[in-house]
Design goal:
The protein is α+β, with helices and mostly antiparallel strands. It has a seven-stranded mixed beta sheet. It has a six-stranded antiparallel β-barrel with strand order 10-11-14-13-12-15. It has a four-stranded antiparallel beta sheet with strand order 18-19-20-21, with helices on one face. The radius of gyration is 31 Å and the shape is globular. The two termini are about 55 Å apart. Pfam families: Topoisom_bac (PF01131), Toprim (PF01751), Toprim_Crpt (PF13342).
């Protein structure tokens, strides 16, 4: 009797799969499915907890690689190996046991290259070989879609190529991160830098693009420019117009007035030369990819991109939306079919009612040739009940309604408006006025109106006729050029996706267009969170600024490929070739080693131009925090990824984690634990639900929760 073992990426995904079938047994580490048409002999679902395994650290290969030294670079292991991630040994052992017992394995992790990486990295570490492997490839966690997906499992041929692609990316990122971070940090510390730099293939050029905007704003010098404005008074009302001149030299503007004999601020007679009215149609926006949704949500609600992804993942696991990590804005006719069938129910959910303009697929939205692995984000067939909707968080409700509105807009009428252009002549000097009037709101009625319309926006123009005489007052208007605006967090997603537009090299522009810029749809928000955590940028009131530490990083990498999006573009282009079977993981990693060797050779000379600035970090990362509670002679110091006793060489093994149950442990918390053996009640820990607890230090100098202590 063949035994099928299904691997899900996380418990919530496993639960969603299981709910599509009949469950026999549930444990902490797996779910047993009863036999049915899909699995005649039943099946077992087990799962990872994010990444169960990770690449080994440098010191796991050689102890001497733990200490940061220039003469050890480049750090390149002969063979890259994985290890079980900290705190995940128990689940790994269960997965290993189930893999060993299986006759058939099914990779049901997320349908992208990282899902392939997670499954095969775990499989490799378990040592299980030679078993048939199939791949689940679905875009929705709805029961019907899950059952259909498991009935039509795919071969793992494409999955293995994606694993090669992901592993090449992971290994090369590891090499660049380890070597470049140590190289630049150690060289800058020689100049008096008191902290460390984290450098990465994608995060560093992202910071550099923000730094470039910072320099543009900082170096911007406002300059005056001059225009001619006319104020006109007709029988039907007043309106303004501008002459078609915009000059830095005021004398040129004055010369034009003199040429036509027009005097400033004196009442003149104007003649309406022409009135043009055009009816214009605007189609509804394209269906959402993750990045377009992140942009809209940041603009409308100031949500950080990471919050949008997290919220969309939650809606996906609740089976309300399709797969969220998509870069596609199209659906196929299959999805269009079920959207048509659910149209009335969706309208009821959104509390709107309209007659569809068309029930035929439109290529602006429905185009199978544009859909690869994933289609656009749309609502699933599951229409939520009022109870389910009311149980959603505010963020979930907002984003679900945005997805629903954008999808329904595809069936609605066009937004129709009338654009009016008035040309008014004052002594032969022509002034242009444009205005807009709504004719039919169409799809726009599905979306919330802007809270504050821009001043003077869409003000209706008076009804004037050709040949009509109007009173006119003309004046020279002085304005100042304005600097570029700082990025918002939503702008960062767009900037990362479209950064190729600003490259000089045409080949790089094409590559960046093909791979869609820096990062991927699934990783951009985490890259932004990383550079925030590294204190390279700050976000205040949704405005992004670069810090002193970020400026130093950019000065250090300026002129190298680490500052240029073209490097990551070329990487992504070749990685895609590995995924399609046209490229080689070995060639890619060899080229990465060559890049690192050149970086080590060139950087010492280029680092001289960097100005060491105060990074406002109160303590150096290796300064004493508190006396060691165990040996009493050493000090607890920040060891970058954890806290530890300075007497570790003498055998004191006391260490404390930087993070505990999703909460960052600050130096002050560690100091309190070392001195008083307990903290006050702290908020922000994460389990199945967020929780608060005090921390205590036990007899073995391990940190424990103390739920008994009250606020």
């Amino acid at each position: 009797m063949p035994k099928t073992v299904i691997f899900a990426e996380k418990p919530s995904q496993a639960k969603a799969y299981a709910e599509a079938f009949s469950v026999g047994e549930k444990t902490k580490t797996y779910i047993q499915l009863k036999p049915d048409d899909t699995f005649p002999h039943g099946a077992t679902i087990t799962w990872g907890v994010g990444h169960l395994v990770e690449l080994k650290e440098p010191h796991d290969y050689h102890k001497e690689w733990k200490k940061w030294k220039l003469d050890q670079l480049p750090i390149v292991p002969e063979r890259f190996l994985e290890k079980v991630s900290k705190g995940k040994w128990e689940q790994f052992q269960e997965v290993k046991r189930l893999f060993q017992q299986a006759d058939v394995l099914v990779n049901a992790a997320d349908v992208d290259r990282e899902g392939s990486n997670i499954f095969y990295s775990i499989l490799r570490l378990t040592g299980v070989k030679g078993k048939p492997i199939q791949r689940l490839w679905i875009n929705s966690l709805e029961k019907d879609e899950v059952r259909k997906g498991f009935r039509h499992l795919e071969s793992n041929e494409k999955d293995l190529r994606l694993f090669d692609e992901a592993k090449a990316r992971q290994i090369s990122d590891w090499m660049v991160g380890i070597n470049a971070s140590r190289l630049f940090t150690l060289l800058l510390q020689k100049k008096g830098f008191g902290s460390y730099l984290s450098i990465g293939r994608v995060q560093s050029p992202t910071v550099y693009l923000i730094y470039q905007r910072h320099r543009e704003i900082e170096n911007f010098k406002p300059e005056p420019f001059y225009q001619i404005e006319g104020q006109f008074k007709s029988q039907a009302g007043t309106y303004k117009g501008m002459a078609e001149i915009k000059e830095k030299d005021k004398a040129k503007v004055q010369a034009l007035l003199d040429k036509h004999g027009v005097k400033e601020k004196e009442t003149e007679f104007g003649i309406v030369q022409r009135v043009d009215k055009k009816t214009k149609h605007q189609k509804s926006p394209k269906l959402h990819s993750l990045s377009t949704l992140q942009g809209v949500a940041n603009k409308r609600w100031k949500y950080p991109p990471s919050k949008v992804l997290k919220t969309m993942q939650s809606l996906y696991e609740k089976r309300l939306v399709s797969y969220p990590r998509t870069d596609c804005n199209y659906i196929t006719e299959s999805e269009f079919g079920y959207l048509v069938n659910n149209l009335d129910a969706y309208q009821k959910t959104l509390n709107v009612s309209f007659t569809p303009a068309s029930l035929k697929p439109n290529k602006r939205y429905v185009n199978s040739s544009q859909v690869q692995e994933h289609y656009a984000i749309i609502p699933t067939k599951t229409v939520p009940t009022e109870k389910k909707l009311s149980g959603l968080s505010r963020e979930e409700q907002n984003l679900y309604n945005e997805i629903l509105s954008t999808t329904l807009a595809m069936f609605h009428k066009d937004y129709v408006y009338e654009e009016t252009t008035i040309l008014t002549s004052v002594k032969g000097l022509s002034f242009k006025t444009t205005g807009k009037r709504d004719v039919d709101n169409g799809w726009k009625e599905l979306f919330p109106k802007p809270a504050k319309p821009k001043q003077g926006q869409d003000k209706p123009l008076p009804n004037v006729g050709q040949g009509e005489q109007v009173d006119a007052q003309v004046e020279v208007k002085e304005s100042m050029t304005k600097p570029p605006k700082p990025y918002t967090e939503g702008d960062l997603i767009t900037m990362m996706k479209t950064c190729g537009k600003h490259m000089d090299d045409e080949a790089d522009v094409e590559i960046l267009k093909e791979v869609e810029g820096l990062g991927t749809e699934a990783t951009r928000s985490s890259i932004i969170e990383t550079i925030k955590a590294q204190k390279y940028i700050e976000v205040r009131k949704n405005t992004v600024s670069v810090t002193n530490k970020g400026i130093m990083l950019c000065e250090a990498i300026e002129g190298t490929l680490l500052s240029s999006p073209s490097m990551t573009a070329k990487w992504e282009s070749y990685l895609k070739k590995i995924g399609s079977g046209e490229g080689s993981k070995q060639v890619f990693t060899k080229q990465t080693v060559q890049f690192i060797e050149k970086l080590i050779q060139d950087t010492p000379g280029s680092i001289e131009k960097v100005h060491i600035k105060s990074t406002e970090e109160k303590k150096k990362w290796n300064e004493p925090i508190a006396k060691c509670p165990s040996c009493q002679t050493g000090s607890i110091i920040d060891r970058y990824k954890f806290y530890a006793c300075s007497n570790y060489k003498e055998g004191c093994s006391v260490t404390f984690p930087k993070k505990l149950a999703g909460k960052t442990l600050t130096q002050n918390m560690i100091k309190t634990l070392c001195q008083k053996k307990r903290t006050r009640v702290l908020k922000g820990f994460k389990g199945k639900k967020p929780f608060s607890t005090a921390l205590v230090l036990d007899e073995d100098y391990k940190i424990k929760f103390d739920f008994a202590k009250k606020e």
